[in-house]
Design brief:
22% of the residues lie in helices and 26% in strands. The protein has 178 residues and is of the alpha+beta class. A hairpin with a 2-residue loop joins β5 (67-70) and β6 (73-75).
Length: 178
């Protein structure tokens, strides 16, 4: 949900914290629904894999931190990875774009993640954006040098086709039975 416009990243940084994720895209403040249990379970699995990779190969695994992409765009990926050469950008927040940004799609966020966040990450220079869709149990890897419809999709449990990191298979929990 869009709240206001013409906001700078400096003003955004002064906002009070909220239980609902707040992001800034091209000066427009957005508030997203908080993640559900399924999205959080998948985010934890992704973070575990990123942390193990970072321990073995260097770099920084980032969870729940704002990424200041420009003077008017601040995004918060569900998970992210910075290569060893760029790991120093991680701190209280990330001062730039992550090499890999991971977004867990939900009914409440899928449109925003695809139509606003994905182009913003790519425009800022992200090498890859992973769109994890629990509803169809896929991970789509979109590389910075291709359009979204050319992303590479794999099913949960298959190797993730990343050019940046090799975390192996998408060992994500299947959807819970209802």
């Amino acid at each position: 949900m869009a709240i206001g416009s013409n906001m700078s990243a400096t003003v955004f940084s002064t906002l009070a914290t909220s239980s609902q994720p707040q992001m800034l895209v091209a000066g427009v403040l957005y508030i997203s629904p908080p993640p559900g249990d399924e999205e959080e379970t998948i985010a934890y699995a992704m973070m575990d894999a990123l942390r193990m990779y970072a321990r073995a190969h260097g770099g920084a695994a980032v969870e729940g931190r704002d990424c200041y992409l420009s003077d008017d765009t601040v995004l918060r990926p569900d998970a992210a990875y910075l290569t060893p050469e760029r790991a120093q950008l991680a701190g209280f927040h990330v001062r730039g774009v992550p090499d890999v940004a991971i977004e867990i799609l939900s009914a409440g966020t899928a449109h925003f993640d695809r139509s606003s966040k994905l182009p913003a990450y790519l425009a800022a220079g992200a090498r890859e954006v992973w769109l994890v869709d629990p509803s169809i149990e896929t991970v789509t890897v979109v590389r910075g040098h291709v359009e979204f419809d050319e992303g590479l999709s794999v099913r949960f449990g298959e190797p993730i086709p990343s050019e940046v990191i090799d975390i192996g298979r998408a060992n994500l929990a299947p959807r819970p039975t209802r």
